Amino acid sequence: MKSLPYFCRGEVIRGFGRGSKELGIPTANFPDSVVDNLPADIGTGIYYGWACVDNGDVYKMVMSIGWNPYYKNTKKSMETHVIHTFKEDFYGEILSVVMVGYIRPERSYNSLEALIAAINNDIEEAKAQLEVPEHLKLRDDNFFTSAPSPSSALPPTSASTSQTIMNGH
Ligand code: ADP
Ligand code: MG
């Protein structure tokens, strides 16, 4: 995938409420402005990379890009599970991510246990892949230290411009 690594950031919005948190795997959702800017070659599936909330520490993450049932599966959704235990939810805060690599395509599972097992495998795969020196160095990218405060977040109208700047930094 030629667009990887791919940098983006946006406000954490409420998701479809499919109860990811009850599975022990909460996923922070990006708004449409971020999803709509994804390059065409970044398709659905599971990705790994780095993430940070507002100006916090940078953690490993796994991200699912899928079809959003709310829009009758015509629109993509991007859901990030940050591999860290947070004390509180962070709705409304700015999530910055770099998608580093692709793990696998989306698929459906026959049981909740099978789904959870698959996600836990993805998390292990992400943890290992991100230790590769080439991937590890992205954790220290300027992109994360230049995270804007929520009040200076770019309005949606300039999102495509900011996207270009972010990936050309
Ligand atoms: P929703 O359907 O609103 O996305 P989830 O059950 O997927 O609900 O929970 C996601 C929310 O949980 C995130 O928006 C964030 O505020 C919070 N959260 C807490 N810990 C994490 C984490 N480690 N990774 C992602 N989100 C987390
Ligand atoms: Mg979610």
Concise description?
With 169 residues, this protein is an alpha+beta fold. Helix content is 23%, strand content 26%.
Over all CA atoms, what is the radius of gyration?
15 Å
Provide the residue-averaged pLDDT: 88
Beta-strand portion reads 25-35%
Largest sheet: 6 strands, antiparallel
Q: What's the order of the H and E elements? A: EEHEEEEHHHH
What is the approximate shape?
Answer: globular
First CA to last CA: what distance?
Answer: 19 Å
Structural class call reads alpha+beta
Q: Which stretches are poorly predicted, pLDDT < 50 over at least 5 residues?
A: 157-164
**Number of separate strands:** 6
Q: What is the helix tally?
A: 5
Q: Which assembly state applies to the chains in this document?
A: single chain
Which key features would you list for this structure?
169 residues, alpha+beta, six-stranded antiparallel sheet, 5 helices, globular, binds adenosine-5'-diphosphate, binds magnesium ion
Please explain how this structure is put together.
This protein is an alpha+beta fold and 169 residues long. 23% of the residues lie in helices and 26% in strands. It is built from five helices and six strands. It has helices at residues 32-35, 112-129, 133-136, 142-145, 159-167, and strands at residues 6-11, 28-29, 45-53, 59-67, 76-82, 94-104. The chain has a six-stranded antiparallel beta sheet. Strand 3 (45-53) and strand 4 (59-67) form a beta hairpin. The two termini are 19 Å apart. Residues 157-164 have low confidence and may be disordered. Bound molecules: adenosine-5'-diphosphate and magnesium ion (MG). Adenosine-5'-diphosphate (ADP) binds next to strand 2 and strand 5.
